[in-house]
């Protein structure tokens, strides 16, 4: 951002003043944590990603003050830090909720209901993509593949998996989060708020009882290639067999797949032969 002429809104091309520093007590605490992070790497600038998680854990997003802190600790310019912080979507650039609810809208999740879930949650919560509810509890966003296609459609809350979701189960999930109820992921560690999640991603241990022991696994379809590579015996196919009466070179009529899109397509929506389109920016 740049300064503007008073009363006219005309950009003057003058950069804003440097971001303020953290209060002395906060800075001392973060410096001790940062020293522990930097010590893990032979080149200090390699610590930038976890340090951005560290400052994100302080205020729930990466502030200009946080980027200034990272630059000073690592001997980088604020421009170098900003380039990284703005490249990765995992770093928030504005205040966000205690729970980051991400709805996978990549191909398989989308056609199995992810698009419908995302649309329903926007209406249910009264927010758009990347926006936060008025109570500050939930930030909603659509996200790309979570590598959990055999559990589609998948939601993630602060990067923990909630598998095999429906519109109704997703609504119940966000309602419970906003009500402060305890919510257990389908697999993985117990849920915690976003600030604590960011600290864990910075590389600090999760000291909650049982958190480290909690776990989960990919499903059979995801692991089929690994089993074959290891020489393990198992089913040769993880998808439904072709119809026995259909020759090899012919496709069965109709839509036998359970993965057909619930949204309108060019085949089912004659008024839009090219399929539904989104407005620019959606």
From TrEMBL:
InterPro entries of this UniProt entry? NuoE-like, NuoE_dom, NuoE_N, Thioredoxin-like_sf
Q: Which keywords annotate this record?
A: 2Fe-2S, Iron, Iron-sulfur, Metal-binding, NAD, Oxidoreductase, Translocase
Top-level taxon of origin: Bacteria
Q: Where is this region: Disordered?
A: 228-282
Q: Per its UniProt record, what Pfam families does this chain match?
A: 2Fe-2S_thioredx
Function as written in the Swiss-Prot or TrEMBL entry: NDH-1 shuttles electrons from NADH, via FMN and iron-sulfur (Fe-S) centers, to quinones in the respiratory chain. The immediate electron acceptor for the enzyme in this species is believed to be menaquinone. Couples the redox reaction to proton translocation (for every two electrons transferred, four hydrogen ions are translocated across the cytoplasmic membrane), and thus conserves the redox energy in a proton gradient.
Q: What is this protein called?
A: NADH-quinone oxidoreductase subunit E
Could you tell me the gene encoding this protein? nuoE
